[in-house]
Amino acid sequence: MDMNDMVIISVDDHISEPPEMFDKHLSGEDLATAPKLRTNADGTNYWEYQGMFMPSVGLNAVVGRPLEEYGMEPSSFEQLRKGVYDVHARIDDMNVNGIAASLNFGTCVGFDGGRFHKAADKGKARIHMRAYNDWHIDEWCGAYPGRFIPCALLPTWDMKATVEEIGRIAKKGCTTVSLNENPTTQGLPSIHNEYWEPMWKAITDNNMTICLHIGAGNPVPHASQETPIEAWITTMPLSSCVGAADWLNLSALQRYPDLRIALSECGLGWIPYFMERADFSHARHKAWTHSDMNFNGQKPSDIFRKHFMVCFIDDAFGLQNLGAVNEDMVSYECDYPHSDTLWPKVPERLWETIRHLSPAQIDKITHRNAMRHFSFDMFRHHEREELTVGALRAKAAAAGVDTTPKSAGGAKPLAEGEALRRITSGDLFRMFAHHAKTAAD
Q: Which residues span the domain enclosing 378?
């Protein structure tokens, strides 16, 4: 096997939703009250929904820009690479990057549908969330069968509606849902509450996988408002450990042995220590915590290896120590179009970090594990030979896909008398507050 023989599925990419996404799925008052893309006086875009204002944040869609132009400043669709919001251009960008298939999370709606959860009018929110699922499954994923893994949202503030939506999207062929890893942040009961029992049953009855994306529930911590932003970005994947520990102690994993969870954008290298620590803590404390009620004599690491898929963007250390995790529960993610994405050079970097493994292990990590865990059979639509890195890049070359970095207007200039300094967490919070106020005004 060489680099061009790889078949790569990315289990974590993102969409900056196009402004017309609801047009074919709603009408009348339902369409009029759906989320709307607006434009500020400075030309930047933001989404408006039920009194909420969500700027189009830079790092969410900087793919194809020169590195010096990265930043969190709100941007406009005109500044984005077309593949960020157009499914046909996305396929071109997947081809040139050697990506056979992709699972996509939303942006303006939140990774977990958080915007709908925050809406005051939950009746409208349910209608609009359902329409988002229809757009995502039928239009975005349906445009290219076998190239996308559909990932839907659930109205978990209403359990009856949640179970109904699981059944509805299952009939459309959707096998994945994205949830908030800590629903108490949405004012809902914790995952350990009996409130969720109907959902666990519906998820497993319909053979679905749960995605828990970083940043959707538990906060991604930073030390202070003066903390340089790079320190914050460095620790972002590690924030998954809080949710992972909580879900690892979920009693439903015993009642539903087929329940499948993916920790989206969590990374790999820290997982062996996490499992070791969980086993040690359990051994030392189970006598008084009564945690064996959840683990039934098994080690926490056994439960983790069975139920949790871990997903990585760039993790040479983790791949060198693959024997410390379950190689059947590791998958690759590209994170297009976010700032961590290595587009259009994913195959080169991935091959560099994975080439020491056997061909069977490489196949597992690049696509076989994802196909199994997400119940996704892309080979039902395409021959394997059509989806290799080499074949997809040949198709992109024939189509003339241009990967030349394109400026979105140049690096932000310093104001007169302003000294060059590191960007901090506080800078971002102040900027977001300013743009939200500008949109509201």
A: 3-440
